[in-house]
Write a structure and sequence with these properties.
This protein has helices at residues 2-13, 110-115, and strands at 26-31, 39-42, 46-52, 55-60, 65-69, 73-79, 94-99, 104-109, 120-126, 129-135. It is mainly β. Strand 7 and strand 8 form a beta hairpin. The two termini are 28 Å apart. Residues 13-20 and 82-89 have low confidence and may be disordered.
Amino acid sequence: MKTRILLLAAMLAGISHCVSADDYSTLYVLPAEVSQPVEEITLADISSLTFSGGKMHVTMSNSSVKDIALVDIHKLIFQLPTTVSLPVATASEQCEVFTLSGQKVASGNKADALRQLPKGIYVVKDGHNVVKVTKR
């Protein structure tokens, strides 16, 4: 277990692309009811975002307030403004795939190793590159 933790820490330290909260442009509020529309809020227009009394309170920069009951929210997604290009080499290159807990879950050529996995966040090591990959 200690070896897995050290391996994971070493791999994460090698990730060359990181994003911060400032990199995000849009907040999508996915409703609990599929028939309801997705709420799209530009982050630059938000003055504050708080949670209290079973609600999410979004105060906009124009002083208007949007209150959304937490039971009506399925998921909150913060969207990057553009596609992030990660240094992942060709699909035929050999790689190893690990969970965030450090468990090796696949190896082989990149296309096949990633295709067989369920949705989730993985660490992919190919040669000297280590990247965090989200499979949706």
